[in-house]
């Protein structure tokens, strides 16, 4: 569940955000197996390495698949956080080394399929360990809980979607210092929840998808510090009044009474009712002290009357997506729009008329989603009247980017160029074509642009060149050519270029682009083959470090990934005639200089 256990996410980047000379040193230390061998014997230096640098080095080695169990030993005195989420090769041997980490505070083993009950024996003596994530480790069962009960100083524990049952949960009653517990997706019963009454410090409790009923929910009174409770996908229909509660998730539940026997209004700050059914919505919301409510998610719900929103003037986040909201019911949203910062109207019956009603009523709105709605290009005019917009999602709509007035054609996007804070624009799966993207050169604050259409060509790619602050450019399923990407001048800040589904690009063309622009991460089906070859080269150099079992597993994973890609490859050549295909085939890298002259570049580039 989205509001479930707060898992420690792996940090992106080989040097883990460490820049300057230090970051370059870490990168150099992880170039190959030979470079690792050159410094791994300097144990005294590694023992004195600051925790954040040790973590950056560890992550860089892990991302480049250069770390193996025997190398883990050099980090035992310096690393405080270990994130191994999704690493299927992590097993009992890895855990034997990690168990010796004297300063380890956070250990994330989520989705590590090789972790079993015996693997947890290694952490029983870790006195500094505060956070442990075992979510989706399917081999962890009740026997593993016997080991966990000796880690007395644990503060956060995630066990969602493991093989632990109600009997194993009773072992956790000795972890009296727990403040965070995620038991989502487990067969927890009312009785087993009652056995945890001794966890009086518990503040966050995830019970989504369990067998808890109203009887078990009554036991929640035994947790005096509870501020977050997730009961999504349960049989709970009524809750006891919990004075300390700040966040409640009852998604996909049938709600009879939000709080039973309340004497004073409950000051909740976050409510999530995605996909829930309400027998009496007005009565349920009447028990809330809405002066404190700033977050409301009622997406996929069956509401036909949104008048209750009129009392929620403090809302900053409102999700109405995939519901019954329409132009006729938009007035309550406009009435409370003064503080709204995030509004999701995706997949509703709202049209441009509804957006017009919001214009001028949402002065602080930063994020707006109109994906899968029936808006047209007139919507851009009203979006331009929302001065604080930072992120706009218009994907899967019928917008074209052009408005015809007689013989004159206007660019729809020009209405957004005065939005000083607009950083993220999603135009994926629309009817936008090359010509409509010409105004992009005036979007000086844009950081992320998403396009997805087979109507787009090299011209659209070049339209992004003048966007000086662009960091992420996604132009998927377009008719791009090798000539187009090799003549493309990326913005100086571009870090990610997603070309997925651009079937006309070749491995040779993408390889040359990567060579010319090494700091840009390119995403395309052909890039996986290049990455595999590079990784094989690194593995050969680091052969002494890699045990046979590990190499075999990685090779098996690569084969499965390649097989999956072949099965999902979409041959878009069927959209072209024979003569058109022959003409495209003549555009080869050897004819770059000639073909480049035929590309219709935007006027901003053609003048350079």
Can you describe what's shown?
This protein has a 19-stranded parallel beta sheet. It is of the alpha/beta class and 608 residues long. It has 22 helices and 25 strands. 27% of the residues lie in helices and 13% in strands. Residues 1-15, 538-554, 563-571 and 588-608 have low confidence and may be disordered. The chain has a domain at 35-164: Alpha-Beta Horseshoe (Leucine-rich repeat, LRR (right-handed beta-alpha superhelix)). α18 runs antiparallel to α19 (548-568).
Write the layout of secondary structure elements.
Layout: H1 20-29, H2 33-39, H3 43-47, H4 51-63, H5 69-72, E1 81-83, H6 92-98, E2 106-108, E3 131-133, H7 142-148, E4 156-158, H8 166-169, E5 180-182, H9 190-194, E6 204-206, H10 214-217, E7 228-230, E8 238-240, E9 247-249, E10 254-255, E11 257-260, E12 270-272, E13 277-278, H11 281-285, E14 295-297, E15 317-319, H12 331-335, E16 342-344, H13 352-358, E17 367-369, H14 379-383, E18 391-393, E19 402-405, E20 408-411, E21 424-428, E22 448-452, H15 458-463, E23 472-476, H16 482-486, E24 496-498, H17 507-516, E25 521-523, H18 525-541, H19 548-568, H20 578-585, H21 592-596, H22 603-606
Parallel strand pairs: 1-2, 2-3, 3-4, 4-5, 5-6, 6-7, 7-9, 8-11, 9-12, 10-13, 12-14, 14-15, 15-16, 16-17, 17-18, 18-21, 21-22, 22-23, 23-24, 24-25
Antiparallel strand pairs: 19-20
Helix pairs in contact: 18-19
